[in-house]
Amino acid sequence: MPGTIVVPEEIFKGLLRAVMAGCWNMGFRKMILLNGHGQEYVIPSAIHEWAKNYQLPAIICNVNWYHAIPEYCKDKEHGGPFETPFIHADEAETSFSMTLFPEMVKKIDACEDNTPVSWIPGHVDKAGNIYQLPIRWYGQVGFGPIEVAAYPEGHIGCPSKASFEKGKAGMEAFLDYLEKLVKDILEKFPPGKLPPTEMITQRDPKEIEPYLKGPLNGGKSIYELRYPP
């Protein structure tokens, strides 16, 4: 679309690795990468590439919000709150958006609903992979049309059916999960503590000790090990 900048996966992964390296170098060595849309198959690759490149103690994870609350993303037929399956900018995503930034969700009654198209149904999951079908949404091409061709409205599904009430319980559950994740990490590894070096890297512990100290505490910068990240 005009005005859209498409960032290739390799560039995006490089950006993420650079962010992780910079944060680690500053002393932020426990990181939660919170993802709200797409790229869920790219972010874990960036994490593992960073870990293999540097082999330094850290706690880094990727949280896709919909993976944490699948039961709140499903349609009524499968025990969820929605009339239609969760796909893209639809009833579900719009409902969750209304809980976070209602001022940006305007003229809900003017939405143009559409019907998702699948040429080979029953095999490929939809957004969030919440129905656990054999093939994840990003694990195929050709099972359905590309979005720009089939959905000129800019979404897939029925955003007109969205409401604050449908998204509220799920968003509360997700925030509760994030709080638990942070608390569990800090309980096991309080500030200043990391997983034992000998159990998380095959580098010589003496070799990485200066990097653990950091460049501002008499140690070394992570960039002496590798640059670019």
The gist of it:
With 229 residues, this protein is mainly alpha-helical.
N-to-C terminal Cα separation, in Å?
A: 31 Å
Number of domains: 2
Low-confidence stretches: none
If helices are DSSP runs of H or I spanning 4 or more residues, what is the number of helices?
8
Rg (C-alpha, Å) = 21 Å
Our estimate of the beta-strand percent is: 5-15%
Overall geometry: elongated
Major beta sheet, strand line-up: 1-2
- Strand tally is 2
Give the ordered list of helices and strands.
HEHEHHHHHH
Largest sheet: 2 strands, parallel
Give a structural overview:
The structure is a single chain. With 229 residues, the protein is mainly alpha-helical. The chain folds into two domains: 8-58 and 194-229, no CATH class; 71-176, no CATH class. The chain contains eight helices and two strands; from the N terminus they run αβαβαααααα. The protein has helices at 9-26, 43-54, 65-68, 91-100, 147-150, 164-188, 197-200, 205-213, and strands spanning 30-35, 59-64. The protein has a two-stranded parallel sheet. α1 crosses α2 (43-54). The longest helix has 25 residues, at 164-188. The protein is elongated, with a radius of gyration of 21 Å. The model has no long low-confidence stretch (mean pLDDT 95).
Secondary-structure map:
Layout: H1 9-26, E1 30-35, H2 43-54, E2 59-64, H3 65-68, H4 91-100, H5 147-150, H6 164-188, H7 197-200, H8 205-213
Parallel strand pairs: 1-2
List keywords for this structure.
8 helices, two-stranded parallel ribbon, mainly alpha, 38% helix, 229 residues, elongated, 2 domains
